[in-house]
Amino acid sequence: MAAAAAGAGSGPWAAQEKQFPPALLSFFIYNPGFGPREGEEENKILFYHPNEVEKNEKIRNVGLCEAIVQFTRTFSPSKPAKSLHTQKNRQFFNEPEGNFWMVMVVRNPIIEKQSKDGKPVIEYQEEELLDKVYSSVLQQCYSMYKLFNGTFLKAMEDGGVKLLKERLEKFFHRYLQTLHLQSCDLLDIFGGISFFPLDKMTYLKIQSFINRMEESLNIVKYTAFLYNDQLIWSGLEQDDMRILYKYLTTSLFPRHIEPELAGRDSPIRAEMPGNLQHYGRFLTGPLNLNDPDAKCRFPKIFVNTDDTYEELHLIVYKAMSAAVCFMIDASIHPTLDFCRRLDSIVGPQLTVLASDICEQFNINKRMSGSEKEPQFKFIYFNHMNLAEKSTVHMRKTPSVSLTSVHPDLMKILGDINSDFTRVDEDEEIIVKAMSDYWVVGKKSDRRELYVILNQKNANLIEVNEEVKKLCATQFNNIFFLD
Amino acid sequence: MGEEDYYLELCERPVQFEKANPVNCVFFDEANKQVFAVRSGGATGVVVKGPDDRNPISFRMDDKGEVKCIKFSLENKILAVQRTSKTVDFCNFIPDNSQLEYTQECKTKNANILGFCWTSSTEIVFITDQGIEFYQVLPEKRSLKLLKSHNLNVNWYMYCPESAVILLSTTVLENVLQPFHFRAGTMSKLPKFEIELPAAPKSTKPSLSERDIAMATIYGQLYVLFLRHHSRTSNSTGAEVVLYHLPREGACKKMHILKLNRTGKFALNVVDNLVVVHHQDTETSVIFDIKLRGEFDGSVTFHHPVLPARSIQPYQIPIAGPAAVTTQSPVPCKLYSSSWIVFQPDIIISASQVLSESDRASLPVIATVFDKLNHEYKKYLDAEQSYAMAVEAGQSRSSPLLKRPVRTQAVLDQSDVYTHVLSAFVEKKEMPHKFVIAVLMEYIRSLNQFQIAVQHYLHELVIKTLVQHNLFYMLHQFLQYHVLSDSKPLACLLLSLESFYPPAHQLSLDMLKRLSTANDEIVEVLLSKHQVLAALRFIRGIGGHDNISARKFLDAAKQTEDNMLFYTIFRFFEQRNQRLRGSPNFTPGEHCEEHVAFFKQIFGDQALMRPTTF
Lengths: 482, 614
Fold this sequence. Notes:
The complex is a heterodimer of chains A (482) and B (614). Chain A is 37% helix and 25% strand. By secondary structure, chain A is an alpha+beta fold. Chain A folds into 3 domains: 18-184, Beta-Lactamase; 200-261 and 278-368, Dynein light chain 2a, cytoplasmic (Beta-Lactamase, 2-Layer Sandwich); 376-475, Beta-Lactamase, CATH 3.30.450. In chain A, strands 9, 10, 11, 12, 13 and 14 form a 6-stranded antiparallel β-sheet that branches. Chain A has a 5-stranded antiparallel β-sheet with strand order 3-2-6-5-4, sandwiched between helices. Chain B has 614 residues and is of the alpha+beta class. In chain B, a hairpin with a 7-residue loop joins strand 21 and strand 22. In chain B, helix 4 runs antiparallel to helix 5 (456-468), helix 7 (488-496) packs antiparallel against helix 8 and helix 12 (563-581) crosses helix 13 (593-603). Chain B is elongated, with a radius of gyration of 37 Å. The interface between A and B is medium-sized, with 33 and 37 residues. Chain B: This is Regulator of MON1-CCZ1 complex.
């Protein structure tokens, strides 16, 4: 069995076996309406990665996808094919806006074996990839594009196909490099938000802080507040926050972690002359407020694209572990004076608040006595507020997500999730994995819980009891059927 | 914002009078709060207006020389007019009494009368530069009887009508103050005290100016307020107000210092037990409340302004007139301008003021007001509680130690704030909803900070406001962090929101679960959602499945039109019957005949559970 050797570099077959994780083969976006006649097929293609591919091959690949979708539509008019499984790869289709198609082709993981005569034999692992995981990744690509560029249609309205192509090229050229397909898992399906646990009083203090800041900076339209890369408050609607949260925690924050870890007296830190009275600094916008030529350029984001379609500047300001995102209307251009004012108002207060939160968190942690990690590995997700909690993932960095369990187990979790999606009703699935692990999946009123238990000789009843215990301790304040 | 933020406003009905000029003299009597306009020495008329008088008193008197001071006794019975430095003239305003004037000369030789004060309707005190003389006026005899007198050198005097205390300034530096108290024909001398003057340059003689002293009753106690322009300690800048407590018995004691943190010209007022200091240079006023916590250095408590400085609401005189006035204390304040105005802002400084009167105050100000209010509220609640506990513990009500806490006007409880402030406030259409919600959250934050349990109607108001503006995600987040406390009414409210916001269902169930007293409600909610199995599992999980009504569950199961589900539920109850009564059959009391028939119809007679026989 392949799994036995997966990831093992020092096993007995190490010399004979080589593993290649799934990889992005191609990624393209097309609109069949743009080149309906023969000879004009090239016009359909809005973006194609890798760009080096020969034109006719691009046209052929796009044509194939079009045909598959068209063909499957015959059987299921409202839900055409989402993915195509082949021996070597898997293709994922997504139509985020009417007639605009995004396709992602992922190569299946490979095991390269040494045959008896010394020739390498390549074995594609056709069943390893989970459709739902990669479909979600593809959807995320669109959401992320939309967050920073608005909809495809808007680009068409603003500057026709030319502008849309430019935007797609500019965005995806960089974004695709940050896709790490080998470490995608259940969490990509959820696209959840990790919330920072907090007592009521501290939470109200944060509320009060946000309201005051919005009032004194008076051009702020929305605010989001995070601590320790976990969300505490979002003035944005859920779906917009979901993708902004993803951007902040997997891209913006990690990029700025280095100077933070270095401490304020280190040479790295000295390059960003900050204020001595507080720890606040801009993560987007001007680096040095004392520099009169400092650029006050903030990334633009697009929210509520379904109705009000708002274009905003994203100002991210951080003091210690507390980060605030102020979003202001894009028609207003923040000046250096505004940035200085923001720094002088927000900086000191946020510094105090950050240390308050830290202190309160430690007190609460000590009181609840939950300092020792539960011996269970679990992943929890609530579809209603997108709350996500995982003790499986140790750290989610931009490059790699570190999980503390074997990929096989992660795959079982993904399978259970797929089963849950099929029916609406609450259910529970218990799986005994090959490696003596028990995996339990529970679904109750739009909440999902996955538990991994390492109890070699446990039987079904004992496992059930253990999970009940876990629910009673970890989830006693929610209505979670056992 | 800006010019629309006010804490104070002038009285709605000002007393208007003719402008002071060589032929028209204007006097003010602090005891009756009356303004006298004396035209041509009274020959062409005297008009008297008080703040409550709809109809001003108007009369004529002979011009016998320039009027220096003119005052009615209490209840407007006798008019006293001082025209010379030695004598005071009297005139009865009592029906059936002679209206001929009579005169009293001061008893002390070579003394000059500085002024006089009425202490009752028939008792009057002359203050001379050599002492005071206390007389009783006998209107029917048209004469006065000296009751008591006291000799000492007097620089100036001040009278506080509410407490009937006269303060005399003595000594060269004018800073030794001698208080006298008057009551029903008696005059008592209180211990004198010295006001510490600030260090002044050697060239100028330090002295205590009358303008820097005020007397007022604050929270039932008499205080002498001294406006010290320069702090005694050199390291702190800015003026301060020193409050000396003047008890009925015992010595006067320095108690409070109000830090003004600014310099310039000031005027003092006391309104609703709050000290209001007006600053002419910045045209603003600051408010102090000595009941609030300050920094205590062992003998004196230092206070800072309750709220940031704000201007008095600009005042429009309803009818074009020369000037507006009414007053409580005789401090002439120029309402930051040049017109001669003394004012009496007799309006409660409260959250309601800040929210409704001023168009929009800033959040930090509102937060401060809430905190101050809730500080008082909490103190009152604590006092109430310890009183209740003491009563419960059997202490007798007559015990002198046991006093029911007095609810002062500073105590505004949640229902007051809800009814009079917040519910009106959220109705204001022109208010941005963001601001409305911020204010509501600020109030909830403040209550929480003082560990006061928030009443559910406040939470409902928050929910209502959020729902009105479709801010469901905001609501969700508040609930997620338990900012809105769990309660059955709140859970029911959430249930009703499900059709607008589906996650409300989950939020409601979670809340019911946490309440742990709402298990019946949980079952009802689940059954209404046709989640029969979930309901049954829940009730079994908490061990209540032996007491539930079989009929209710079978009804719900039948409604789902899911035969297998019905089978399962039916079988569960058959097993329960077997376990509890030794037979799977339902008793007539359970009213399940209809369901048994239905079961037989679908699954046949043989599917019924057979009684186990041993």
